Amino acid sequence: MLLKNNNNDERCAIAVHSPPPPPPPTTAAAGIYIHIPFCIRKCPYCDFYSISDLSFKKRFVTDLIKELEMRADPALIVDTIYFGGGTPSLLTSGELEKIVAAVTKSFKFPNKRQDLQITMEVNPGSVKESYFKEIREYGVNRLSVGVQSFQNRKLSFLERIHSADASRQTILSARDAGFDDIGIDLMYGLPEETEKIWLADLEAALECHPEHISCYMLSYESDTPMFAAYKRGDIKPLDDGKAASLFKLTSEYLVSKGFSHYEISNFAATLEHQSIHNKKYWEMVTYLGFGPSAHSYYFQLLSDNALFKRSWNTKSVHKYLSLIENGILPVAEQETLTNEQQLIEMIMVSLRTDKGIDIKSFEQLYGECQFEIIFKDVINQLEKRSWGKIEGERCRLTNDGWLFLDTILRWFVNKMLK
Ligand code: SF4
After folding, report:
1. Which of 78, 215, 277, 359 could form a disulfide with 371 if both were Cys (CB 3.0 to 4.6 A apart)?
2. Does this model's pTM top 0.85?
3. CA of 273 to the centre of ligand 1 (A)
4. Which of 297, 351, 309 is nearest to 31 (CA)?
């Protein structure tokens, strides 16, 4: 039985370990993620799965459509489709049209087209205005342009295949084709990057009048050439203090220009320009991923119990093709989340956002236990260091807190597992 607790830490911790009632299935519309696993050339810092042999592309599109048909659920309401990768803009507009048609046939969609957000990641320099016009015609209404930097020196360090001018031209072409929801992806924290260098990128981005900006700190992911270069001592990463000041500068500057810092790496010009699709990840709403390495999160009803599941597809394009062509779903692994895992995940994704943890939902869904009692010590620490606070029914982090997100998550998890 769950303990209703008013003032006792220990009893509350026990309540978390007791089996709470299963969380009710979410009623929010689901999102569909499509992974296009091709890139013209691999960037040395990137650990997303992609190959540069485009000769498999045609076969891949046929098999991706098969996967969509195999996993069709005409009752599942969906309001976002996100083409990520890899480089989705390597698809021809005809291929894209076929995939969108297969998705819309496989799931239930809003009646009004404008209620369906279809985002496509675009690599600058790879597409022309006529392409943008065609994909708009097929329903794509939001673009995420992988600019990374408006400075050729940074682009060359990152070994990007495009120039800064190509990025500007891509954004202009998209505007001319009628796109009014354009996001720019930037990367910062390169070795020796100064505030002046980074500010120049932010200013250049704003000159393109984007509706959304994502700013990612360069990270050295294992199994990438850049990680190997760092290990060899060929690259000296920016020190933590400088990286932290760039993070703070990003937030202060973009917020001063009217953007909302709604997730640790994401800024939107207005509420409606936030990424509806990505919010599904942070709000633990159902999403289904298709294509090699794509992840899914969903629930299954079993005798009135909702089992929350996570699964991911095989990474290899070759294995993916062979499984689909033999009528087998390309799932690499699948797991049912325990209530504890659900809780931890909820804390992890919520703290990334400006909304933070919804305390009421936490308490209702996971055992009628008082959040502020379970995490009293953590909240005290957050407040003492100005890393976060309780505001109304939310526990959210400050910019300073976001800098120590990993540490803070550890505090929360340790408290729960105590
Ligand atoms: S283009 Fe994008 S997905 Fe492809 S290797 Fe570069 S960063 Fe990774």
Report:
1. 359
2. yes
3. 24
4. 297
